[in-house]
Write a structure and sequence with these properties.
By secondary structure, this protein is of the alpha/beta class. The protein contains 16 helices and 9 strands. The protein is extended. The chain binds 2-acetamido-2-deoxy-beta-D-glucopyranose (6 copies). One 2-acetamido-2-deoxy-beta-D-glucopyranose binds next to helix 4. One of its GO terms (biological process) is methylation.
Length: about 450
């Protein structure tokens, strides 16, 4: 389809209603004012406080002057009242005239929706208007939705970044999307999440190679050509895999080398902070842990290990230093591109297990952490497990800040291990907390 097919703008459903409601507000204002004028002028005893505000120079003891002033004010007010009611009737006429006019113009001038426009710093671009809707539903579809229009989801903070959002929505309709993964992700991290949807297509990888069949795919590194790399510093998987050997801090530094540390994770109890997966699962009735979530799951190894145990785990991940999501998907696991600030897209009381390693830590502002933990509690089913894996903090914060937060949430502790971080952590009083927490049955 050519871009022409996409272009035809639809009549925005809201314009008419918006101007109408603005006029109604105006009339209400006028009515309210004339009503108070009426109160003022109608009764000599109800002057009170308001008059003092109007004529601050007057003195209470100057009673003769006061009477004069009041008489004066009263005269002026009843004057205004007369004027206002004249205005009022003029406006009513104006209102019906305008309604006719609006009905006419909204037929003639499409895509001038000013209800949503009001939220933005300036008149939004056409594509932005389409992206945010609302879009009218066909007649008869409103019952379940409770509305006769659909509002596309878009993070409310998008409004703070109109330039960026419009740049994000600047493309050839139906054509190839700009190569802007990093740009888009920064926008997400500023709170513009979910991003608005677009009417363009992502670039195809240079040489897509079909994934290995499952379960071999779980432990295969995908070919460099099967994803697009332009956006990242590391231009291929070899780079991602090898950077673990070099110094420097990267997100999920050594998790792309599937044959080194990654291969051993959660297989054995290396220390009291590292629980073995089978040990954790054995605490629950067999087969009752079936579906779950790994928050910030790096290359997806937690989900891969769970998959080998017939447990389905969704892995959330941002693409910080590389295409984490593509990597996870190539292993045959489910990636979800979502920041930590996002409300978990699962319904209440549904998941058997939520796991998170290294990600939840003291860099997260306390209030946000508390919201995150309540959200985890929300999506877990009664009896569901929250496996908090290596939560990092300073020793003094543990008992003063974090233990109280965890206690407020209301999980039951199944396992709870706090230990000093080895290497330089010892002199810096750096700690890790690992815990197995269970949502109460009732
Ligand atoms: C108040 O004003 C009316 C005319 O508006 C006048 O007849 C009356 O004498 C005035 N009363 C006083 C006390 O000035
Ligand atoms: C959209 O992109 C074109 C070409 O890159 C540019 O000239 C134009 O200014 C952009 N418009 C907006 C609103 O960013
Ligand atoms: C992989 O990328 C790195 C830089 O990101 C480059 O130095 C290296 O030559 C690349 N390797 C291959 C096989 O393309
Ligand atoms: C996973 O499910 C398959 C098919 O039902 C079964 O053959 C296999 O034994 C299961 N594996 C585990 C670890 O339970
Ligand atoms: C926290 O409190 C517990 C019990 O009160 C205590 O055993 C532990 O040493 C404290 N932890 C830290 C890191 O201070
Ligand atoms: C079509 C239309 O009425 N657009 C207006 C929306 O609101 C902005 C800001 O108030 C005006 O500048 C536009 O003309």
């Amino acid at each position: 389809m050519g871009s022409k097919d996409y272009d035809s703008p639809k009549k925005p459903p809201h314009q008419h209603a918006t101007i109408k409601s603005k006029i109604k507000i105006l009339i209400l204002l006028v009515l309210t004012n004339s009503f108070s004028v009426f109160l003022f002028s109608g009764s000599g005893t109800s002057f009170g406080v308001n008059i003092w505000r109007c004529t601050p120079s007057m003195h209470v003891w100057d009673s003769e002057k006061l009477v004069l002033e009041l008489n004066n004010t009263r005269a002026r007010l009843s004057d205004s009242q007369a004027q206002l009611s004249a205005l009022h009737s003029q406006l009513s006429i104006g209102n019906s005239l305008l309604e006719t006019l609006i009905a006419e113009t909204s037929r003639l001038a499409p895509a001038t929706n000013n209800k949503t426009s009001d939220m933005w710093a300036r008149e939004p671009s056409e594509e932005l208007k389409f992206a945010m809707g609302p879009h009218k539903l066909p007649f008869g579809f409103t019952a379940n939705l409770g509305s006769d229009e659909l509002y596309p989801a878009m993070g409310h903070a998008c409004q703070n970044f109109q330039d960026e959002v419009e740049q994000f929505l600047n493309y050839t309709i139906g054509g190839e999307c700009p190569s802007d993964e990093v740009f888009a992700q920064r926008l997400m991290l500023k709170g513009c999440e979910p991003l608005p949807r677009r009417r363009c297509k992502p670039r195809a990888p240079a040489g897509y190679v079909e994934p290995h069949p499952y379960p071999k795919s779980l432990w295969s590194i995908p070919p460099d050509t099967s994803i697009t790399w332009d956006a990242y510093t590391c231009k291929n998987y070899s780079c991602l895999v090898n950077r673990g050997k070099h110094s420097g801090s990267y997100d999920c530094k050594d998790c792309f080398n599937l044959f080194y540390r990654e291969k051993k994770r959660w297989m054995h109890e290396h220390s009291e902070l590292d629980y073995a997966m089978d040990g954790v699962l054995s605490l629950m009735s067999k087969g009752t842990i079936r579906i779950g979530l790994d928050i910030g799951g790096g290359s997806g190894t937690f989900a891969a290990r769970m998959s080998e145990r017939n447990i389905t785990i969704v892995t959330t991940s941002m693409n910080f230093d590389g295409p984490f999501n593509s990597f996870i998907a190539s292993r045959g696991l489910i990636p979800m591109h979502m920041s930590l600030a996002h409300r978990l897209p699962f319904f209440d009381n549904t998941l058997d297990i939520v796991h998170s390693m290294h990600v939840l830590s003291n860099w997260i502002p306390d209030m946000m952490l508390e919201f995150t933990l309540f959200d985890i509690y929300r999506v877990l089913r009664p009896g569901g497990l929250f496996w908090l894996d290596r939560f990092f903090c300073i020793g003094t914060q543990l008992n003063s800040t974090y233990v109280p937060i965890f206690e407020r949430i209301g999980f039951n502790r199944i396992r709870w291990n706090a230990g000093r971080k080895l290497d330089r952590g010892i002199e810096r009083n750096e700690w890790y907390l690992s815990a197995l927490l269970q949502k109460p049955m009732s």
